[in-house]
């Protein structure tokens, strides 16, 4: 196998991982701090994509679209938190699953009524629509490089936020010693709403960034939602670092699996069977990865908060 | 058992027993067909409630067992109908259409899978358990989707329903009573299980597994057995579902299907067994009726689910039988249960 | 005791509402009327296809003043949410309870495979406005089953022929890893004469194709044939264009990845790609010109091939009911009238083959940009009076 192709697939894996990280970071924060399983996280991703597409097509400016997506997803997230999810914090995970599943159905239908059943259009911004030869001989889409850079930037920003700021301190404290933080006079309700808003904005950002690459359609959130859960489970719930490692791991395993498994299978099978078997195995690769990780370490790779 | 509860059970059982007659009297014999579907899903929901409501094991992969049971029937019937040999089994077996072989085999196979999946999954708890069961279900889903021998994503038609001695499975009423009998039998079994010493341990696992372990109870084994019984129950439901729709496909294993079964349990009232029947009825009838009113029926179903969670905590069953819920601790959907173990 | 009474009243009220809803689902049939049941996908993923089919069908019904073939027509539309069991349940209800004359509407092959046999077994007519799985075209053909769209392989076969005609010798082919995907690639290979540079099966519902695109580029084929319906196709085309490959390695596919809704979502990235279809909105025949104008007027968008199929399904029923004078109870006469296909299809020449699947022309369209945006333009005809590969296996 040529080295250039291998490197290119590695970049692809990284890019996919970075997208997953944007989703996983928010989800894992919300889970780690509020103990809330939020299936509707994918809906916020969808809101981000739809708003970005709409605003971009109105203004012709992708950046404005992304900013609008951040705002819309953040606002929607906080609204949902205030109206419904806030009452679910102390409740059984099952209640949370059921309620947020109901929210998914609601959001999907509202989106369909507002924007229609057909997929929406969002083009790649002009500056990023070309390709760049980061690896000699391989023209790589500039937009994908942009996604990688944004993702890594968000990662460093989150790290800074959590380690060096007062808000970050409260987040860390809220996750480990909720009652104590409350007793010290911190408005924990407001903290939760803010954290939820941050998570929602990250999901909105992911949705907006996905827009130029993916079909913007009703139900797009569910596809990535399951993958995101796989990521935070592998990484260990509540851990931003775990979310990053998990996301990259899932991105890599999925990409390498799709890219190389059929080739590997061909070395000891006839080609037509190898194609099918390779495709079948690679489509479950990440679930196998998750099962193996959990059997090996039942609480994920990184346990954030106690155990 | 209080008078109130006795009354609710009596009325419920009465309706179920005489439903075909009532439907015929109302001039709507087709209601029986729909009711059969409700009972099939009720069976799956009851089996999930057994582990979820009593053992605190939230399986998000129950659709896998449901689908697997359906596939056992589908594959056996497929070979029997076409007169071909089952390739992946040793010997020259050409399948069978007899329910006496199909159904026990469905129970056996799903039970076996449940033991394997359970043995691996039960090492985890809380939300990790939710996700690992989902992972196994997804693996099976993608496996069946890409398996061309049995239709892959297109699924398999069931050209003949299972043959039950002395019963015409194509008759709506007889089909209904067969399903009802199996549901009642499973309910009885589940009732016996949860009220036995075994059941006490199971409920104990939900409340405080660590304490049980400290007392020397091998909770892992207890939970595994419960998981297997539950998987087998879902498998039986799947076998019936295959007969009812006369079709099996990977859609039965999709994660949304697992979610629906879960919703039925919560809607009806978790940890009540009988509530699951009410939950299955409510969800399926809402789908049936709402989807014929408007194409935007999800806009009604979605908020309905949220409201049920927020304001009707004991589920429909809890609401019907009233305030006597406190008598049995396992019947309370206690928000804090498992919380400590899950979230660390 | 007050709460108990409240609860009893509530339960009674709920039961009453459900029962009323149940009754409302089927109004009583009046004699001499025609009852049509439409089972289609209106919610969730893939809803746009079902909506197109429904809109096309309803347009025809409206144009005929609510009477197909002169008979007062009662159209019952139910959403299957793309779930097999739902579709099956609805079909059973339509057959046993509502006693409809004709069932139509199903979008997906797997739903059709599950529903159609039970419809034909109950001696009801099923008219497929989409989805033509091979099993129902060959050995499993049935006198009660008519397909007014295509056999699934048709468009892939046409593309195999076209790509060969264009002189490509080394083509890379891709489809999702499920039976329809495999059928698509074998249909393509049936008429394609060159070598296959690579054959790739992707995950059903996959969103990211970067890995496949990288492998594809490394294989350096002359052209790519892909069958990725719905959102998968949108994802692939967008990412393919971003990788800067559209000009180097041209893309070819069946119309399923190029319907008007999808083109709107893909935008300029799709320009210059080719697809095969049995229909195009710029087909020059009287019926089509009128249809396109009426459809735009009614719904404010161009009709897709799905809309044309829904419209044709209604016209087919209309022609047959007219021919039997509104008396659809005589099964043999009604079937014969349907088989005659005596209507002006918006796709031009149309007739049924021995297996009651279309014998029709298949065209090639290029994606271009015109005044209204990105759309399809007819560029040629690949097959004339094309039947399907399974007709000979059908015993009818």
Provide a descriptive summary of the structure in words.
The complex is a heterotrimer of chains A (307), B (344) and C (396). Chain A contains eleven helices and two strands. Chain A has 307 residues and is an all-alpha fold. Chain A has one domain (13-125, 142-296): ABC transporter involved in vitamin B12 uptake, BtuC. Chain A has a two-stranded antiparallel ribbon with strand order 1-2. Chain B has a single domain, classed as ABC transporter involved in vitamin B12 uptake, BtuC (Orthogonal Bundle), CATH 1.10.3470. Chain B contains 13 helices and two strands, in the order H-H-H-H-H-E-H-H-H-E-H-H-H-H-H. In chain B, helix 2 packs antiparallel against helix 8, helix 3 (62-82) packs across helix 8 and helix 9 (255-268) packs across helix 10 (274-293). Chain C is of the alpha/beta class and 396 residues long. Chain C has helices at residues 2-24, 47-63, 84-98, 109-121, 134-137, 154-165, 179-191, 210-219, 231-242, 260-266, 286-299, 305-323, 331-340, and strands at 34-40, 67-68, 71-79, 102-104, 125-128, 145-147, 170-176, 195-202, 223-226, 251-254, 274-277, 350-352, 358-370, 373-386. Classes of the chains: A mainly alpha (307), B mainly alpha (344), C alpha/beta (396). At the A-B interface, helix 4, helix 9 and helix 11 of A face helix 5, helix 9, helix 11 and helix 13 of B.
Task: Offer a few descriptive terms.
heterotrimer; A: 307 residues; mainly alpha; ABC transporter involved in vitamin B12 uptake, BtuC; two-stranded antiparallel sheet; 11 helices; 2 strands; 3% strand; globular; B: 344 residues; 13 helices; 1% strand; disordered C terminus
How would you summarize this macromolecular structure in one to three sentences?
Chain A has 307 residues and is mainly α.
Q: What secondary-structure arrangement, pairings included, does this model have?
A:
The complex is a heterotrimer of chains A (about 300), B (about 350) and C (about 400).
Chain A (H helix, E strand, L loop, with lengths): L2 H32 L6 H19 L2 H22 L9 H23 L15 E5 L2 E4 H23 L1 H11 L1 H6 L4 H23 L9 H16 L4 H27 L4 H26 L11
Antiparallel strand pairs in A: 1-2
Helix pairs in contact in A: 1-5, 1-8, 1-9, 1-10, 2-3, 2-4, 2-8, 2-9, 3-8, 5-6, 9-10, 9-11, 10-11
Chain B lengths: L2 H23 L4 H25 L7 H21 L16 H23 L4 H20 L10 E2 L14 H23 L2 H18 L4 H27 L1 E2 L6 H14 L5 H20 L4 H14 L3 H7 L17 H5 L1
Antiparallel strand pairs in B: 1-2
Helix pairs in contact in B: 1-2, 2-6, 2-8, 2-9, 2-10, 3-4, 3-5, 3-8, 4-8, 7-8, 9-10, 10-12
Chain C lengths: L1 H23 L9 E7 L6 H17 L3 E2 L2 E9 L4 H15 L3 E3 L4 H13 L3 E4 L5 H4 L7 E3 L6 H12 L4 E7 L2 H13 L3 E8 L7 H10 L3 E4 L4 H12 L8 E4 L5 H7 L7 E4 L8 H14 L5 H19 L7 H10 L9 E3 L5 E13 L2 E14 L10
Parallel strand pairs in C: 1-3, 1-4, 4-5, 5-6, 7-8, 7-9, 9-10, 10-11
Antiparallel strand pairs in C: 2-3, 11-13, 12-13, 13-14
């Amino acid at each position: 196998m040529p080295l250039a192709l291998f490197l290119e697939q590695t970049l692809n894996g990284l890019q996919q991982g970075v997208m997953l990280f944007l989703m996983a970071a928010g989800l894992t924060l919300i889970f780690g701090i509020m103990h809330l399983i939020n299936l509707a996280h994918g809906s916020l991703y969808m809101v981000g994509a739809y708003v970005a597409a709409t605003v971009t097509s109105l203004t012709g400016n992708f950046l404005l679209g992304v900013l609008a997506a951040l705002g819309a997803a953040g606002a929607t997230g906080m609204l949902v938190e205030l109206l419904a999810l806030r009452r679910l914090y102390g409740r059984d995970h099952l209640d949370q699953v059921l309620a947020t599943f109901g929210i998914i159905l609601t959001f999907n239908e509202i989106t369909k009524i507002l924007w229609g059943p057909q997929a929406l259009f969002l083009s790649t911004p002009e500056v990023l629509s070309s390709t760049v030869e980061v690896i000699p001989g391989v023209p790589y889409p500039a937009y994908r490089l942009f996604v990688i850079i944004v993702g890594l930037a968000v990662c460093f920003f989150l790290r800074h936020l959590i380690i060096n700021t007062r808000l970050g301190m409260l987040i860390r404290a809220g996750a480990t010693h909720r009652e104590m933080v409350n007793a010290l006079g911190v408005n924990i309700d407001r903290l939760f709403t803010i954290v939820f808003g941050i998570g929602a904005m990250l999901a909105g950002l992911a949705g907006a960034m996905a827009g130029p690459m993916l079909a913007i359609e009703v139900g797009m959130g569910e596809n990535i939602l399951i993958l995101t859960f796989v990521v935070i489970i592998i990484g260990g719930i509540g851990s931003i670092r775990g979310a990053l490692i998990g996301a990259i791991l899932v991105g890599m395993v999925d990409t390498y699996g799709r890219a190389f498994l059929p080739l590997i299978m061909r070395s000891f099978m006839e080609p037509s069977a190898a194609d099918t078997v390779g495709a079948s195995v690679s489509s479950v690769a990440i679930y196998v990865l998750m099962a193996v990780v959990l059997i090996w370490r039942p609480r994920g790779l990184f346990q954030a908060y106690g155990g | 058992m209080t008078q109130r509860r006795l009354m609710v059970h009596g009325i419920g059982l009465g309706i179920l027993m005489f439903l075909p007659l009532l439907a015929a009297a109302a001039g709507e014999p087709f209601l029986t067909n729909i009711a059969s579907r409700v009972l099939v899903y009720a069976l799956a929901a009851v089996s999930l409630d057994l582990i979820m409501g009593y053992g605190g094991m939230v399986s998000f992969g129950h659709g896998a067992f449901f689908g697997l049971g359906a596939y056992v029937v589908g594959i056996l019937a497929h070979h029997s109908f076409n007169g071909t040999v089952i390739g992946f089994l040793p010997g020259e077996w050409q399948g069978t259409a007899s329910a006496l072989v199909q159904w026990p085999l469905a129970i056996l196979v799903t039970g076996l899978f449940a033991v394997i999946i359970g043995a691996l999954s039960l090492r985890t708890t809380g939300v990790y358990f939710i996700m690992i069961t989902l992972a196994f279900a997804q693996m099976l889903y993608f496996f069946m989707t890409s398996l061309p021998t049995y239709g892959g994503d297109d699924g398999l038609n069931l050209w003949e329903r299972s043959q039950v001695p002395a019963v015409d499975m194509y008759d709506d009423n007889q089909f209904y009573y067969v399903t009802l009998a199996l549901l009642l039998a499973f309910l009885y079994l589940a009732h016996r299980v949860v009220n036995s010493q075994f059941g006490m341990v199971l409920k104990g696992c939900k409340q405080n597994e660590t304490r049980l372990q400290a007392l020397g109870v091998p909770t892992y084994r207890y939970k595994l057995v419960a998981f297997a019984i539950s998987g087998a129950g879902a498998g039986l439901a799947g076998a019936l579902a295959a007969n009812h729709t006369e079709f099996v496909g990977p859609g039965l294993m999709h994660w949304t299907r697992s979610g629906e079964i879960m919703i039925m349990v919560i809607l009806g009232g978790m940890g009540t067994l009988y509530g699951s029947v009410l939950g299955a009825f409510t969800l399926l009838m809402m789908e049936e009726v709402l989807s014929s009113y408007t194409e935007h029926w999800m806009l009604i179903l979605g908020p309905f689910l949220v409201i049920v969670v927020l304001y009707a905590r004991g589920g429909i069953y809890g609401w019907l039988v009233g305030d006597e819920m406190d008598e049995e601790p396992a019947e309370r959907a206690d928000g804090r249960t498992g919380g400590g173990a899950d979230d660390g | 005791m007050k709460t108990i009474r409240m609860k009893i009243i509530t339960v009674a009220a709920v039961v009453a509402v459900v029962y009323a809803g149940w009754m409302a689902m089927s109004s009583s049939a009046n004699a001499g009327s025609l009852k049509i049941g439409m089972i289609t996908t209106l919610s969730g993923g893939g809803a746009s296809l079902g909506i197109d089919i429904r809109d096309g069908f309803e347009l025809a019904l409206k144009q005929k003043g609510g009477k197909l073939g002169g008979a007062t027509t009662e159209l019952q539309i139910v959403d299957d949410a793309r779930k097999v069991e739902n579709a099956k349940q609805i079909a059973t209800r339509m057959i046993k309870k509502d006693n409809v004359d004709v069932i139509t509407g199903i979008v997906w092959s797997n739903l059709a495979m599950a529903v159609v046999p039970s419809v034909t077994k109950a001696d009801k007519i099923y008219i497929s406005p989409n989805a033509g799985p091979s099993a129902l075209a060959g050995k499993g053909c049935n006198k009660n089953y008519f397909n007014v769209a295509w056999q699934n392989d048709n468009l892939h076969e046409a593309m195999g022929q076209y790509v060969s005609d264009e002189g490509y010798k080394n083509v890379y082919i891709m489809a999702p890893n499920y039976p329809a995907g495999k059928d698509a690639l074998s249909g393509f290979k049936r008429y394609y004469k060159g070598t296959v540079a690579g054959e790739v099966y992707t995950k059903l519902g996959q969103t990211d194709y970067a890995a496949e695109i990288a492998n594809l580029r490394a294989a350096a084929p002359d052209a790519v044939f892909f069958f990725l319906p719905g959102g998968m196709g949108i994802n692939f085309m967008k990412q393919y264009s971003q990788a800067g490959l559209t000009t180097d390695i041209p893309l070819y596919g069946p119309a399923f990845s190029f319907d008007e809704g999808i083109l709107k979502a893909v935008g300029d990235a799709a320009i210059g790609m080719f697809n095969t279809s049995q229909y195009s909105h710029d087909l020059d025949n009287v019926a089509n010109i009128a249809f396109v104008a009426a459809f735009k007027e009614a719904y404010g968008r161009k009709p897709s091939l799905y809309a044309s199929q829904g419209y044709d399904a209604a016209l087919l029923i209309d022609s047959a009911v007219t021919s039997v004078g509104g008396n659809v109870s005589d099964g043999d006469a009604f079937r014969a009238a349907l088989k005659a296909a005596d209507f002006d299809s918006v796709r031009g020449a149309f007739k049924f083959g021995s297996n009651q699947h279309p014998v029709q022309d298949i065209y090639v369209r290029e994606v271009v940009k015109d005044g209204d945006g990105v759309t399809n333009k007819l560029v040629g005809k690949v097959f004339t009076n094309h039947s399907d590969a399974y007709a000979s296996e059908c015993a009818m």
